[in-house]
Each structure stands twice: as C-alpha cells, then as structure tokens.
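Why do we care about 3D structure at all? Because function follows from shape, and shape follows, mostly, from sequence. That is the central idea of this module. The next example makes it concrete: a single protein chain, its amino acid sequence, and then its structure expressed as tokens.
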Amino acid sequence: MRPLLAERGCTVAPDIRLRTLAEVIDHLGASGQTGIINGTEVRVRRPAAGRKDREKFISGKNKQNAVKSMVVTDAEGRLLFCSPAGPASCADVTHARKLGLVKLLAGGPPVEILADAGYQGLGAQTGGRVVTPPHRKFKKNPPEWYEEMRERQRKAHSSRRIRVEHGIGHLENWRSLARREHMSDTIQAVPGALSRQQASGTRT
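And the structure:
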C-alpha cells in the first residue's frame, strides 16, 4: 500500500494533486503564491554494524541516527510536497540541489521561496527566487545600528516562514515515521493523507 499512497501526491484542491517538485513550482507560479521549504529529520534505528553506509545516517545537526526529507508548503503551511527520504548526514542546501530545485527555479516561473539559513547560497543560484535570512556582514564589532536592522530583518523573515514548521509538526506526529523500513514511501504517503484532510477542511 505504501508505494501506491506515496504516488498519490498532495491534494491542494478537489481537482489539483501535486506529485513532483516540478509540479509544485509550476503550481506556485501559476497561482502567484509564496512557497516555503525546510528540511526535516526523523530519528530512526541505527543500521546494523558492518553496513558500509552506516555512518551516513548520523545527523550532523542533532548527532543522532536519522533520515532527512525536504518539505514544501504554501504560505499558510499547507503541505505541497515531501521528498523521498535520504541519509541525514546530507546538508539541507546539498539535498535541495540534488532534488533539482535550483534548475527548476532558475528556468521556471518567478516564484518566491522562503527558506532558513541552511539554504543560503540558493538565492544567488536562482536569481533571487530563494529568500534566506540576511548574511552577517560584520564578523567583529558590528555597529549597533546594523545589529538592530539585521535583527528586525531576521524576525520579519522568520515570521513569514514559521508556517512550514506547522506543516512539519503535523507530519512528525505520525508514529509510523519512526520505522526506517520503506521510509521513503511512508514519508511521502503521510503528506498525501494530511493534505487531503487540509484541502477538505477536516481536522488532522
């Protein structure tokens, strides 16, 4: 059942279902909506001793065995896409590039994508379509006015992208995600079920 459910994609309207990242970018461009991306990690059992790829599952962020997926929501936090699971040792920005996000945005519609500092560098590669928090220009002894301005910009950006955390929060509530077996199918099947509830107005 998992592969079948994973292939259904995310429902955003009774007659619109998004199955790929390319379809999500096209949908956001056609509807003039802002998208939000974030990487989420799900803790899993450590692979058996002796497996050559055992260390790939150790997250550099949380120092635990986990798999990573990139989640895309709209500005309201509604789930639009969840990528297949990969080892958590991969950085968020590298994961996004592997999924083809840079190519899709650079050659696609003028879409605004909000992201956290883990995706810095994508803005320059996508013509400013990926928007991340401002870089710190002064490494030492920054002037007071600059720190105040940067903090205002950081808070404004954070308040716009906080909705993606709500979407991820719904995703991580599902106990089935704790199993490493068939993780890619499971982590894509769950958003499909959640998005259908969200589109119909049913509580999750």
